[in-house]
Amino acid sequence: MEACLLIHGFTGGVHELAPLAGFLESKGIRVGTFTLSGHGGSRKEMQDAGSREWIASAEAALEKLLDEHGQVHLIGFSTGALIATRLAALYKERIASLTLLSTPVFPLHPPAIARTLVQPKMVGRYIRNLFIVPSRAAKEFYRLVDESLEWYEEAQAPALIVQGAQDHLVKPRSAAYLQERLGSKRKEQLILARSGHLVCHSPDQLELFDAVLDHVKRSSCSPPTPPVKSFDSAARTEDHRDLQVESV
User: Fold this and answer.
1) If you write DSSP's letter for every residue of the chain in order, what string do you get?
2) Is the pTM of this model over 0.90?
């Protein structure tokens, strides 16, 4: 049985990936989910847990799955995609594939972020987040985004890069940047035309789910891979500190 570890985003929770988790389980794939350290509790708990603790909690969940499976497929959403990249770099031989959803390489500025709240399923949660995220946690997020620049080339598992064309948190060209910088020999992009940031809750979710399942199955078989098609991407010169991070 294949095993996947799903990693949610900053200030979020397992609900962000729940539809995908249910789909994969229905296909006979073992799915591991967990809550990042400091999340899902009080403001103080988030204040006390930084990016190191977030990564450590994800690593503990990964090792638990690796105790029973030779390899694990990593699926990360938003900030969880950054953490998944880090784990893929650390556990090269044990990661069967890497799926990156809405990865915040090029975040948008605060006025644009507000438009994301039109997605009804998540409005309540994200409005709540506006009031509970301490400044220290936000700084830890910025640090994680910056540090992730050093991890992409070390992540070598077959990669599926997914980006919503209507994402109001992450610029769509983030996908092209990942296509260029990831160390994976096989890299594919999926741009979801009708999707915003929350791709697992989007109108394109069935297309996404089928693509993830296909990626997991093909990565398990480890077929010969063709040369990677190169993509041009703009230099990463923007300051990530313009980002309002309550829903990333």
Assistant:
1) --EEEEE--TT--GGGTHHHHHHHHHTT-EEE----TT-SS-HHHHHH--HHHHHHHHHHHHHHHHTT-S-EEEEEETHHHHHHHHHHHHSGGGEEEEEEES--SSBPPHHHHGGGGG-GGGHHHHHHHHHH--HHHHHHHHHHHHHGGGTGGG--S-EEEEEETT-SSB-TTHHHHHHHH---SSEEEEEETT--S-GGGSTTHHHHHHHHHHHHHHHHH----PPPPP-------S-GGG---TT-
2) no
